[in-house]
Amino acid sequence: MSELADFVLNVFRRSGGIVEPPAYGVYEVLLPDEAARRWNVPAYQRLAFADEVPAETAATEDVNIVSYGHPLLEKLMEEIRAERTCVLAYINDVRLDKRGLLTLARQTLAFPNARLTDVPHKSKSAALCYYVRFNFKAALITDEKRERLVSVVMDAQAGFVVPELADAEQIARLEEEPTSGHLPTAPVRWLPGNPPLSRAVLDGLLERATHAALDELAEPLETLRRRAARHLELDGSRLTGYYDDIAHDLQHRLQRSTDPARRAALEDKLTATQAEREAKLADIEAKYHLRAELELINLQVIGQPKILLPVKIANRPAKVERTVIWDPLFHRIEPLACEVCGRSATRLMLCAGGHLVHEQCLLPEQCVDCKRIYCRLCADQIKHCAVCDRPVCAHSLNRCKTCERSTCHEHVGLCHAADGKPVQLPPLEPPEAAPPPVEKVEEKPAPPLPPRGRQNSAKGKLKTAARATRRARRPVTKKPRTPTLHKIEVYVDPGAPIVTAYVLTKGKKQIAVRVWELMDEGIVVTCLCEKAWSCPTDGRLLEPEGPSRISAQIEEQIEDLRQEYGISTWRVFRHAIIHGAPQQVPRVVLRDEWKMER
Prior knowledge:
598 residues, alpha+beta, 4 domains, eight-stranded mixed beta sheet, seven-stranded mixed beta sheet
C-alpha cells in the first residue's frame, strides 16, 4: 500500500468508516453520514489511488481515482492540521508502596550546610504526576540544510529534563486510560499556583526544552561549524586570489596608460572590482553562516502515579519545606531542582534566603561577620563595608546614625572618622618571608695571656683598658623572650555540641583558644590566637563526617593544632565533665548530638 492510500484510508477508518478491498487496487468505502456531509462526498464510494491503480481500472467510470492535489485529499489534510497534535498516555503498572523514604532520602540527597528532617503531622501520599515530551524538527543550516528529530522529556512538576524517558515506549507500557484516576494531581513545584498542564506551565517547559534540545545539538553543531569554517576559508582564499589578479592587471594597465579617458575607465573598473570583491565575500560569509532552527512538531503528555513525602531542610539562618518524590518506575528518589538554573541535582546548598541551589550558583562572596551564604537570587542581601569594602550581609550590617554609612562589626565608628569620610585602611602587606638560616661560625679560642711580670705589667694594663673600652662601645641588644609552650587542654561542653582547646604556656598563660561548634550548616571553627584576624583557621566551616567518623574528625583537628604549635603528643590532655567535675580521658568523648544523621 502506498503512503497516499495509507493516509486516506486511515482517516476513513478513524472517522468510523468501513474499508473493504474487493479487487486489486480498488477499495470500497462506507462512511458515516456526518463524515460524508463534512467532506461533501457520497457515503458509499469506490476508490483507487493514482500511484497504484492498474490501467484497466482507470477506464472504469464508477471508480474515483485519488491523486495528489485531489479535492478530497486537500480536505482531509486541512482537517488533520486543525486537530491538536498532543497525545495523552498513562503508565499504570507501578507499585505505590515504599517504606523508609526518609532514610532513603537522606542517603540519596546531600545538603552540606543543612539537615533534612521530617515534617510533623505530615506523611507520605500518592499523587498523579506528568511528563511532557516535546518533539522538535531541528534544521541545521549552512551551505546545505540538514534536518533531524530531537525529543526532550520534561518533568511537569519539577521543571527539569528527564533523559531516561526519551524512549518511554521501550521502558513502560503506555495506556490510554489511567487506573489511578482517583489520585489527586501533584502540584507544580517550580511554578506554584498553576495546574500542571496550564498554558503558563507548558510555555515555561517549552522554553526549557528548547535550551535542552540546543544542548543536545551542541556536538553536531560544532562539527558543522568546523566544516563551514574550512569551506569559508577555501572559498575566501579562492575569491581573494581571483580579484587580486584582476586588480593587479588593472593597476599595471593604469600605470602604462597616458590617455586621461582610458585612465578614468580603468579607475572605474578598479573601483567596481573592489566593490564586487566585498560583495562576493559577504555572500560566502552569509552562505556558510551556521544557524539552528527548531520547530515544535507535537508533544506527548504522560501521566504516572508517584509517592510524595514532605520534608524539612533547615540550617541556622533558614528553614524550608520541600517534597521528596519516590519514582516507582525507576525505583529511585528523584533529584531536586536548583532554584537558580532549574537543573536537577542530588547535592544542593541551602542559602540564607531559603533557596536550594548548586554550589556554583552561590555568590562568590559571603558575609565576613556571620558567615551567611547567599545565592544569585539573593544578590541584594550582600552589601559592602564603607571602610574595608568587604562583603557584609544585610543582617550583620551596622548602619551609622551620624553619617548613615554601613560598616562591618570590626569597623564600627570608622565610617566618618577622617573629617567626615571613612578611614582609608592601608593595603594588607604580604607576609614577610622567613630569613635564611644563619650558618654558625666556630669561634677560635683566644690565645693565652702572657704571665704577668714586672716587665709586662704596664703593657698588660694598657691592653686591659683597651679591651674594656671596646666592650663599652659595643651596643647591647636583648633578644625578646618567647614564651615556652607547655601543653594543650581540651574540654567537651556537657550542655552544647562544643569542643574547646586551650594552648597554655608553663606559666598557665593562654596563647590560643580554638573552638569547634556543631551547627546546622556544619562544624564552625573559631580561633583566638596571636594571628588575630589573619588566622586562616578562624571562621572555617567543616562538613561533618558520618557518626562513626565524627570523633576521629575532631581528633584530627586537635592533632593539627598540636603540630601547628609544636607541642609534644604527651602534653595534650583531654577532659570530660563527669558528675559535674572535669576528669581526664584518653580520647574525646562527644555528645549524642554530634553523632546524629544529617
